[in-house]
Amino acid sequence: MEEEEVKLNKYERYKLRMSPHDFFPQIESLDFENIGDADRYYLQDFGIFNADFSEEAFTLRARIPGGRISATQFRNLADIVKKYDLRIIITARAGLQIQGLEAENILEVFHQVNALGLSTWQSFGDNARNIVTDIYDGVGAYAEIESYPIIMQMQERVLKKPRYVGMLPRRISVGISGNSANVVSLFANDLYFALAKKDALFGFNVFMGGKNSKVAQDANIFLDPSEVADFFEAFIEAFFLHGLRGSRSNTRLYHLLKSIGMEQFKEYIEIEYKKPFKNAGELLLQKATFAQTQQLKDKSYSYCYQTDFARISAQEISMIAEYATKHNATIRLGIDQNIYLFGLEVKPTALTPPRESAMIVACAGSEYCPYSYWNIKNETSYLPLEKINEHKIEVGFSGCTKGCARHQHADIGLIGLRTSSFGAAEGGAKLFLGAQHTEGKSVARAIFSMVPLQHLHALLSLIITLYEQSGYQDFEAYTAKVLNKYSEDFLALWFLLNLQTGQSIQLIAREENSFAYEKSLLGVHFLGLEVLSFNAESFKKAVSLTSKKLWTI
Predict the structure, then answer these.
(1) Per-residue confidence (pLDDT) for residue 4, from 0 to 100
(2) Rounded to whole angstroms, what are the CA distances from 273 to 227, 261, 276, 539?
């Protein structure tokens, strides 16, 4: 056993010593002012987070399955936040994260939140995390199957089951949608049930292995709605039994599939599922745009209340809860980090002036997360928000490489970083473009490894201007037909030289491309610029020289 333990990562060794479920009763007598590394590991499984380098600060996360929360729960949650002077954000998995807790009140608030009928179990750690769906599930114009009852069945199978609480090899993110068009793509999930049709019946195609930097892959499985919960439980058991438990950097489902292959893992699932799989049906996904106010299938209306880049005050929560009660509306949290009201009899007027956060999915940021380099909520001022919202360009802004904002599953992706590449140490962002996210075809490509924040607005404004000139209906189509036909280094240099010369020269769509063609384009449009030296078959040196010339302080 000792020899076997050496091969396991630290968290797996904790699991061998004591399961999180067995640890749970100890929470009541735990000294939260003096907790150790093992305590921190176990507490995550019940929604309590505390970092060893920020020992006095605690975070509590509540899972909100399908994003659905009652007006009463919302109102009572606001009262808790006010009572303890806390802060709250909506997570990118449509959960709630309560910040500002301390050792003296974390246990009390933990009990109060769970007493509301919400659950903090399995919201952090190596668990099946909050199960998400599209915000218009069951009620929108594109809805064919209501996913929420299935979500509750799946959650019931694992939520407090001792075998699974904190015991999976790594976290599992699950998405399911019975809609043919979704507000946000769900292909970043480890497991995704996407609307499909087979033999004239609606059901779900299964996709597996997604994460922030990879799209989930087609498993060639079709499920009837009644089969999803059984499949999910079989999937969890197969991952529990066969998942990788070595280096933490290689324990996600993606790495298991890469190691043993999709077909082998499907065999493991089928053993637990106890019946053969049906081949995939016709995937039913299309791109659509959504307004702040939408008319629903039953002719009632929904309203999107835009948060302050996921931040929401207790006063706002109380106001929304009161409005929902007065108008007999229901409340849902979206994975776009906004709050939605459903079932309004008349088209609502704005509850507050519209914010410019609607198209931005942002991670918690350094104000709330010890791993984030930047206060993402404030650094959005470096973005051309008016243009982003006008064209409904989806942006993911993560504060570190963990990628909580799904930056590679967006039209424009950003990772906040620190840099001294352009002079004194300052803030910057790695820039990604061009995810084909609607149908999960590809993630965004890294175009710039670093853009100083003070130059980000000008660069993104140029990119959007070139899109506007292209005539394409949406940014995703533009990147698919134009930008993704060119190499990353060429695009970086093209944007830089346009900035340097004050131009906005359009690129055209091409089926075939080559270094020679890209080189000739630069020669035609930027002839005479000193930086254009092509002795090597690469634009990397030119990109480096030009970016430093433009951006060095």
Answers:
(1) 41
(2) 10, 18, 8, 52
